[in-house]
Amino acid sequence: MKPGVLGLLLALGMTATAAQAQTAPQTPAPAETPIVIGRSYALPSAVMGATREINVWLPPGYAGSGKTYPVLYVLDGGQDQDFHHISGLAQLGTVVGTTRDVIVVGIASVDRRNELALPTQDPELIARYPTQGHSDRFRRFLAEEVQPFVETRFRTSGETALMGESLAGLFVVETFLKEPQMFDAYVAVSPSLWWDGGELARQSGARLRDQSNDPRTLILTLGDEGPEMQAPMDVLTANLRDHALPGLSWSFTPRPTETHATIYHGAALDAFRKLYAVPTP
């Protein structure tokens, strides 16, 4: 074949290929929509002197049901804290029908030792955490601003629970001992009862003597976290046994295969199953 003919054929082939490429259907880009887990509210707080982040997850059928729902308040409940994995447990229970529908409210922390720890007399802790010790103020924030906001904006049944881990677990225990009427149920996962040398645990006997017999639930759990964590938990559980209250249902579950870093998700799932069990027919 002559070189000129070959060149002509190649040119024609390239032209045809280019024409086909121009006329071939283009694959459309995948549609993109955001995944909405819940809603975040910037709640102005006179108590805290700042706007605070409150995150809310509603059961899937909330909008059209007309029903009222229990509320689980989650400490360290920011979007970059524990809100997503705890609301995920609520979602799972709803989807598979293993737990009742519940509204999850996450209260974000900003300065955890300021907000979640009670005052200490330990000079080393004071020097290390100079802003520590204002848990009473944070409790007022929950009682006077967060709970009213939730109760007026959403269809709540009046059944409430407070959940937290580590320093937030310490806050849960302190609230249970000092203001037991604030919530119906308390879930403290690996509470930092070591704070202030275990003083809160030592005070628990006297606090329990002053409590009423109103029905409420306390769920405690601890991993393999050493004597500093275990010793004050032993003091607390001993006082709970010694000062039995007819209206109080409490439990302590050791989790020796878990650490402080791994315990929360499984412990929270167990708490969901206990607090929000689906009634048997």
From TrEMBL:
Pfam families xref list: Esterase
Molecular function (Gene Ontology), one example: hydrolase activity, acting on ester bonds
Keyword check for Hydrolase: yes
Keywords: Hydrolase, Signal
InterPro entries for the chain: AB_hydrolase_fold (IPR029058), Esterase-like (IPR000801), Siderophore_Hydrolase_D (IPR052558)
Domain of life of the source: Bacteria
UniProt xrefs under Gene3D superfamilies: alpha/beta hydrolase
Cleaved signal peptide residues: 1-21
Keyword Glycosyltransferase: no
Family: Belongs to the esterase D family.
Name of the protein described by the UniProt record: Esterase
Species per Swiss-Prot/TrEMBL record: Brevundimonas aurantiaca
Higher taxonomy: Bacteria, Pseudomonadati, Pseudomonadota, Alphaproteobacteria, Caulobacterales
